[in-house]
Specification:
Layout (H helix, E strand, L loop, with lengths): L1 H31 L3 H16 L12 E6 L10 E7 L2 E7 L4 H38 L3 H6 L16 H54 L6 H30 L10 E4 H18 L3 E4 L6 E4 L1 H18 L4 E8 L3 E9 L30 H11 L3 E7 L2 E10 L2
Length: about 400
């Protein structure tokens, strides 16, 4: 956009220069071309010489505006003049080279130049506001999609020249989101299967351990062999039990790879990005969206991941709220900045609240609402990686999710 503005300024400079140079050339040519006023003065001089000064008529003259006898004294006039000696007397001829015809030509040329300039400027303005600015608004969409941000709002009716492009981007976004949902479903099924198998293995493990204990107590003949077998069974059972414990432990750890780059950024950058994402989207949904006044500060963390955290929280507020109001508030506590997202219409029960940050957990209020149960789980993992915290509370029918960011000292 800055390059286009520079080009636009350069075009304006060229237009102004063209006006200046053209008028300079026209005036110069007009003042130097064949000097037609001299012909007119010569004709009038002949009339004075043959007919006398009293009979001169200037009504049909294009250049000469006045004739006076010249006595040599200083003469002040707004016109150019020429002194001629006629019949032994000096006459002063006042004239102008800017006749009506020349002025008309210059005016016509200037009007044509002005019209062409106006068309060029209008075309540039049209290109800027109807093509470049809408495309400029779309510049971050591919980048956001590459980061996994599938909630980028795109308003199709504002981009009449990019309708098919916007439609394609929306289709791509929907396909990526669908693919992501499928991957999460496969991940959940895999986790459920492993946990189910781990649980089922415990039953035969218990039986093996009982048999091994029976053998070790000498309940069978050939005691040495029986003890050897019992000890082998017991050892294998312990190994299997150890594997099961490792499987269960691994499934309770992170199921997604979440990279975080700790840096410092201004709170205003985080808030402005969130505002840009959701002001228009929530306005279209007729949801009141309020951002409380705040004092800017520097926060430690990953800006992109922080945006992702707040987006996940707001998306949950959109899904599970009543669509009436979403509000972002701010507070400070022990060198920490607290950012809270509150939505009206909470239907989550108090006994379900402690589980909302668990992986693949979905509350009773999620019936008939699409989702993976990983949104808030991811939020918690990201906040912990940024040395922050996240918690939730229910106040009447309002859901309040608060993120705690460390402020730079």
């Amino acid at each position: 956009m800055k390059s286009f503005n520079r080009i636009f300024v350069a075009v304006l400079v060229i237009i102004v220069s063209a006006f200046f140079v053209t008028n300079r050339i026209l005036l110069s040519e007009n003042s130097n071309k064949s000097r037609p006023y001299r012909v007119e003065i010569q004709r009038l001089a002949l009339q004075i010489e043959t007919g006398g000064f009293e009979n001169i008529d200037l009504s049909d003259c294009s250049y000469v505006v006045n004739i006076k006898k010249y006595d040599g004294d200083f003469y002040n006039s707004d016109y150019d003049y020429l002194v001629r000696e006629i019949n032994g007397k000096l006459y002063r001829f006042d004239y102008t080279v800017k006749n009506y015809r020349d002025r008309k030509i210059i005016t016509t040329i200037n009007i044509i130049l002005a019209a062409i300039s106006a068309v060029i400027i209008v075309v540039f303005i049209f290109i800027k506001y109807k093509i470049l600015l809408p495309f400029y608004d779309l510049r971050d969409v591919p980048y956001e999609l590459s980061r996994g941000n599938l909630t980028v709002p795109i308003t199709e009716n504002k981009y009449r020249f990019f309708g098919k492009f916007v439609w394609g981007i929306n289709m791509l976004r929907e396909n990526i989101e669908l693919q992501k949902q499928r991957e999460l479903e496969l991940l959940r099924e895999k986790k459920t299967l492993v946990l189910s198998l781990s649980h089922d293995i415990k039953t035969p493990l218990l039986a093996i351990k009982l048999y091994s204990k029976a053998l070790s107590k000498g309940l069978y003949n050939d005691r040495e062999k029986q003890i050897e077998i019992a000890e082998s069974i017991n050892t294998k059972a312990d190994e299997i039990e150890s594997f099961v414990s490792e499987i269960i432990k691994s499934q309770n750890e992170e199921v997604l790879k979440l990279d975080v780059n700790i840096d410092e950024f201004y709170l205003s950058r985080l808030v402005s990005d969130i505002s840009a994402y959701y002001q228009e989207k929530l306005s279209i949904m007729k949801t009141d969206f309020f951002i409380e006044q705040y004092s800017d500060c520097i926060i430690k963390g990953d800006l992109d991941r922080s945006i992702e955290v707040l987006q996940n929280i707001i998306e949950n507020a959109i899904k599970y709220g009543d669509g009436q109001k979403i509000e972002i508030t701010f507070s400070e506590e022990e060198s920490c900045k607290l950012i809270s997202v509150k939505n009206s219409g909470c239907t989550l029960s108090d006994n379900e609240l402690p589980h909302i940050f668990d992986s693949f957990w979905r509350g009773a209020n999620s019936e008939n609402i699409s989702g993976s149960g990983l949104g808030l789980y991811i939020c918690r993992q990201l906040m912990h990686k940024m040395n922050g915290e996240i918690f939730a509370e229910i106040n009447a029918d309002n859901m309040l999710v608060t993120t705690v960011f460390i402020m730079a000292g």
